[in-house]
Amino acid sequence: MRLVMAQLCYLKLPIVLLNPHYMIYDRDHQEDWTPYTPYLKRDPMECKDMAYIETVLKWMVTDLLEKRKARAARGESPGRPFFFVLDEFPDIKAEIKDAPTLIGKLLRQGRKYGIYLIVASQDYSVKTLGVEGEGGIRKCFRTIFYVGGDPVSVKELLNKKVSEIPENDLGQGTIMLKCATIKDPIVVHVPYLDNESLYLLLGPTTYAASHKDVQADELELSPTTTTTVKNEPNGSKNPSSSSSSVPDGWTEEETQWARKLYKELRNKDTVLKLLEKKGTIADRRKELDLILQENNHEKDA
Questions:
Q1: The domain 2-202 is classified under which CATH number: 3.30.9.10, 3.20.20.70, 3.40.640.10, 3.40.50.300?
Q2: What is the pLDDT of residues 248-262, one digit of tens each?
Q3: How far apart are CA 226 and CA 134, in angstroms?
Q4: Is 284 helix (H, G, I), strand (E, B) or coil?
Q5: Dihedrals phi, psi of 24, to nearest 5 degrees
Q6: Could you tell me where the DSSP H helices lie in the chain?
Q7: Which residues pair with residue 245 across a beta bridge?
Q8: 99-109 pLDDT tens trace
Q9: Rounded CA gap, 257 and 34, in Å?
């Protein structure tokens, strides 16, 4: 998707990115998205809001499409090609009830009037797309880039058995392609767009990495102390020992253990990974003790 978007931006074609999980820099995948921003018709940070995405989808169908159809009916050019990129489509469908209907109409009619959709999803089943009873809509996805890791798409879009796909060879410039002129999917090599290539094509990054120790989430592990008051037999009031609030789904013991772990390691990701592990708290505490011992050995060294 980054490669296709970069080419469209370089050609200065109208393009809007609708991604509810957009981030200017994806730290997990080391992907810089800032060079695209000057070329997009709308600020992608604004376009990550679900309410805004719904507004854009409705505008595409009720305004943009209808105006282009009217121009074509008068014998005029409908307009320049207009591209809309929808990332994380299952999440959009889950939040916006009319999304499958709106996108279905655009897929059926939009191409004729210069409106093109680029949809990214990890699952292209009829159920995921929300087009039960309208499986033919998937045929409107005329060009398919498969980068691996999705057996559902292999069956639904490529019409192949999983065993026929060279999964281990796909990724970083090697994909499977199916389009109107290539009915049987083939393995092809496309330019691999890393950040440096993107900077050469579209311009420099505007991302400024922050090295601050972000501790906002630490509040979730901080105790909230409350004081309860008990009436003594003689009528006097004594504050009882402090008690701390417990996050939903956690036991008091697990909460205290997590706080201790965070205090020692200062690493929220490690805390959450250990909390998510199966097994008893005692088992996970053993793992904690081993980690703390390793840390202490490293400090002593």
A1: 3.40.50.300
A2: 555 666 666 666 666
A3: 57
A4: helix
A5: -65, -30
A6: 2-10, 50-59, 66-73, 89-95, 99-109, 126-129, 151-156, 195-202, 252-265, 268-276, 281-300
A7: none
A8: 988 988 998 89
A9: 40
